[in-house]
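Thread: quick sanity check before group meeting

JM: Hey all, I'm pulling together slides for Thursday and realized we never actually wrote out the predicted structure for the chain we discussed last week. Dropping the sequence here so it's in one place. If anyone has concerns about the input, flag it before I start.
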Amino acid sequence: MDHLVSVIVPIYNVERFLERCFESILSQTYKNFEIIAIDDGSKDNSPAILDQWAKRDSRIKATHQKNVGVAATRNNGLKLAQGEYVLFVDSDDTISPLGMDRLVKKAVASDLDIAYGAGFRISITGKVAVPTNKPENIHEQVLSGPEYMEKAIRSKSYNNGVWNKLYKRSFLVDNELWFKEGLVYEDLLWSPQVFMKAKRVQFVDTDFANIFVRHGAITQDPYNLSIRHHDSLYIFDTLTDMYLNAQISETQRMVFLDYVTNRRINLLKTYRSFYSKEQIDDNMSKIRKYTKLWSTRVNAFSLKFRPR
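JM (edit): ok, ran it. Output follows.
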């Protein structure tokens, strides 16, 4: 099989984990890949580790840049990529040895825009959680992106992460599907935008990735966590507008709007300390307006929610 895969790896202050990440990629049974490894202005020993590994294996293409964030770094990687397919791997995570081979075979055989697998979330203590994003009702089905989203949301297996998905590069570039730069939680916006454009999506029953949840990660940092929650409200507004205007079935529209509205409510309730009373009142006003536009399934307590 002669289909080049570009593995895009943003790097920022991960000296403890970077070698583990590279080892997992280089241990793939599928060998036709390049690693677009971009150091995003790290302040630790990550740049030196990257350069050492690039000297060991010519498939590692090392790039160094000033800090611009994960979204911009992924965009830069996508611009540099030469592969027919693209994987996004976080530099503190790993992928299983057979993962790339299984996703590529399925993507080629079924002419997919997106092939995706499952994965495990692993805590800082090493505790392994159950596989994530493993749907029970859509194995081996080739679906459009909206069809996949509807079924995955209904089965509670929908996941916004990019860590378990192989993308056809021409599909991303031709549709100008770039990450929104400046957001801390860019996947939450980007993934739905990508699925809304995808024509052929398929789940591959393989445990593809190991996601390590750790202190010090960008999304776990207290300062970035605060920004992330405020970014999320912007993202929910953007997704709501997209779903309202998308050319999808009314059933899909209902499912997507229900999903994003309940995500907004849960965010406000769980992390109320990050928001002012005015922000919460404004968002609850939006939610009440939304419930008049469609039959959003939110409970009475949610609509009466007020900050402490």
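AS: nice. The radius of gyration is 20 Å. Residues 222-303 form one domain.
JM: adding both to the slides.
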